[in-house]
Model the fold of this input.
Amino acid sequence: MASRFFDSQPKSGEIEEKMQGFPSWLEISLDSISRNLEKIKKAVKGAELIPCVKTNAYGHGLVPIVAHMMRRGIKRVLVAKLWEAMQLREAGLDCDIINMDPVFTDIACEKIVEKGITQTVFNMATAEKISSSAVKLGKDAKVFIKIDTGLGRVGVKHDEAPSLIESICSLPKISLEGIFSTLSEDRAYDRVQLERMLYVEAELRKRGLDPGTRSMASSNAVFHFPDSYLDAVRPGLMVYGVYPEEEDREAGLSLEQALSFKARLEHVKWVEKGESLTYSRRFIAPRRMRVGTIHVGYSDGYPRGLTNKGIVKVGGVFKPVLGTVSLNHHLIELDETGAETGDIVELIGREREINISNLARLAGIMTYTLCVGLNPLLPRVYYEKGRPVAVSEPKIVES
Ligand SMILES: Cc1ncc(COP(=O)(O)O)c(C=O)c1O
Done:
C-alpha cells in the first residue's frame, strides 16, 4: 500500500523539471526521517514507535510522510483530526490510525468504524455511540482510552478510569487497543503521573482486563524520562529532527532536521543610502545596498517575527532579512553575493544559523509553531538518496 504511493509519483527527472517552476517550496529528506526513526527505536529499547503525525505531519506533509514511515516498519500513527485519518485512508494507506479528534455524530462514528480507525474515548457517551455504529456495521470498533493522570486537559481521571474502562469493554463490538496519557513535562510530576498510569493498569488486571498498549511518552519523555516508555512511545516533533527545546540536544540523541525551505529571488535592485524599505519604513539603508525580494511571507509560514531579524543563505553566505516580513514578501541583503533574479535562496536549512531552532528563537516562537505554520499548500518535494521521489503541489492548471 505504502510503496504504491511512491510508485504513483512522477519520475525524479519530471519532479526536477516541475521544480524549475516553483517560486518557493519545501524539501524534505526522507533519509533523515528514516535515520531519526532508527535512532529513536534504538533509544526506546523495544517499545513500539507510534509517530505523531498530526497537523500535516508537523508541516512535513501527511500522506508522503506516513507512506514513508510505513515502508520503514511503522504500524500505527497518531492524528489529531478525523480529516487527517480520512486523508490517509483516501490515499490507500492501511496502517492503524489512532484518532484523537472528538466525535459527536453517528455519521462520524460510522466512518471511523467503517475505515478501521481507532478512536480515542474517555466517556461512556462516546463509547456507546461507537459501539452502536459497530453493531450497525457488523464490524468491531477499536478504542484507545485517554486517561488524565494529571495534565488536566482531556481524559478520564485516573481514579475513575478502571470502572469506566470495565464498562466500555462490556459494550458490544468494542475492542480495547490500549490506554494512554499525556505527561506534564514537569520532571517530578511526570513520575506521579506514571505511578497513576501503573495504578490504572494494575486495577484493570485485578478485574481480569488486559489494558492492551500502555503509552505515555512523547518527544520530551523520549529524551528525558525512560521509565515512561512502557509499551509504546508517541514522539512527534523529534521524528522530523527538530528539538522542541535547546536542552533536548544534551539528551544524547543526535537527530537530523529533515526540512528545508527554498525560494527563488523575485526581484533584485540597488537601494541608495537613506532609502527606506517595507511597511512603516522598518528598514533604512545605512549605505548603498543590493537588495533582493523573496515572494514568501507570513502567509506561507515564514514568521512575521523575523522582521529585521531573520537570516537566509544565498550564494553560500548568510544574509539578513531587511525590514518587515509581510503577508507574501520579505526582503534580504545581497551585497557581494552576485545573486540575480531567479537564483535560489535557502530560507530554512540544516545549518545552525538558519535551522528551525534558531529561526524560531529569533522570531520568539516555539519550534512547533514554526513547523506547523508552514502553509500546507506550499509545494513539497521528498528526497531519497539525493533524488526527488515524491512531490505535492497545489494544482495551478487543470491537467
Ligand atoms: C497525545 C499526544 N501524544 C504525542 C504527541 C507528540 O508530542 P511531541 O511532538 O512533543 O513529541 C502529542 C502532541 O502534542 C499529543 O497530543
Remarks:
- Residues 290 and 336 are 8 Å apart (CA to CA).
- The first helix runs from residue 2 to 7.
